[in-house]
Amino acid sequence: MAEKRIVRAAAVQIAPDLDDGAKTLERVLNALNEATDKGAEFVVFPETFVPWYPYFSFVAPPVLTGAEHLRLYEHAVVVPGPVTEAVASVARRRGVVVVLGVNERDHGSLYNAQLIFDADGSLKLKRRKITPTYHERMIWGQGDGSGLKAVDTAVGRVGALACWEHYNPLARYALMADHEEIHAAQFPGSMVGQIFADQMEVTIRHHALESGCFVVNATGWLTEEQIARIAPNEAMQKALRGGCNTAIVTPEGAHLVPPLKEGEGILVADMDMALVLKRKRMMDSVGHYARPELLSLKIDDRPQPPLRREFSLEPLSHGSVSDEADDEARLDPSDGAAHQRVAVLRGQARRA
Asked: Which family does it belong to (predicted)?
């Protein structure tokens, strides 16, 4: 039962390596080992941390971003692949549930993806940000509804959203209705300034209260050297400072530890899962406090591939018995289902 569990969570705020995605991955693995050395059972990293968040797209005009965009393709993550195998290995060896943000490459497109690894190393969920925000639309494609769900893990039911997806109340409600107990929130950090951190504070605490779940939020960090490299124009550098609010929030909307707003670090705190039931006893927004006969959510949670293959048959002959025999001969003899479909279609044709 959730009310009898204590889960030690960690939220990681670190800087990527802007030159080499493999070195950013090394930073992830080192942080995982450090967090688990402190007893962490659940660890969250920032939005698209591997290989790095596309900060360049926020401060440079699109016509000047081609080279950096292509470089992001070069270092992006294929799922499954070497990056997922490396993270899964540490998750399995250290017995930790991991939520990692990556730039996922799927052939000719990039996506903002959130990966949830269970403590046995299995990849329980790969979801894509459903709507990239503002400048991000030049970088990533759109996700679909198949990832708007919570998954069972060694620490409980976990859901995840990225950045301004938290401003989409129906996306949040989809996870709430799927009874998430722990919510992983991921933001880029080092952007926009203090107002971004302030808005994030309101957003994650409100979701904790409304969902009746814990929220573990991780934001990224840029060093001054990295800021100067991304934005050589000093006037634009202020757009890459502030906006950090790594935090762990209870279902009652309280911080378990002071949030981390400057520099690198790992927040660690014990989450008493009894607080989930304590909150929901008073206000279960998808249970006794819901009015589904008045207000409800309709969701299409099917994957939306660009190609769907469907069974088809050539038009059946209305001719001789020998023509029907030819139709039958074209089918795989071992495919009993196909022969049955032919019989049904032939019967319909004769009745017509």
From this structure: Belongs to the carbon-nitrogen hydrolase superfamily. Nitrilase family.
Q: pLDDT digits over 180-209, tens only?
A: 999 999 999 999 999 999 999 999 999 999
pTM of the predicted model over 0.90: no
Q: How far apart are CA 144 and CA 304, in angstroms?
A: 6
Q: Which residues of the chain have pLDDT under 50?
A: 1-2, 320-322, 324-325, 329, 331
Give 127's DSSP letter.
Answer: E
Per DSSP, 58 falls in state H
For residue 77, the cross-strand partners are 104
Residue ranges of the domains in the chain?
A: 2-282, 321-351
Rounded CA separation 120/105 (Å) = 25
Give residue-wise pLDDT tens across range 39-56: 999 999 999 999 999 999
Q: How far is CA 176 from the centre of its chain?
A: 15
Distance of CA 149 to the CA centre of its chain: 10
Checking 275-282 for CB contacts under 8 A at 24+ apart, the result is 275/214, 275/250, 275/251, 276/2, 276/3, 276/181, 276/212, 276/213, 276/214, 276/251, 277/2, 277/3, 278/3, 278/251, 278/252, 279/209, 279/212, 279/251, 279/252, 280/212, 280/251
Distance CA 238, CA 166 (A): 25
Mind telling me the catalytic residues? 47, 129, 163
Amino acid at 257: V
340: three-class secondary structure by DSSP: helix
Q: Taking CA 327 as the corner, what is the angle to CA 324 and CA 332, rounded to the nearest 5 degrees? A: 135
**Residue 158: its H or E element:** strand 156-162
Are the C-beta atoms of 290 and 176 separated by less than 8 Å?
no
CB atoms near residue 179 (< 10 Å) = 19
Residue 194 CA to residue 232 CA, distance in Å, equals 21
CATH architecture of 2-282: 4-Layer Sandwich (3.60)
Tokens read off for 67: 């080279």
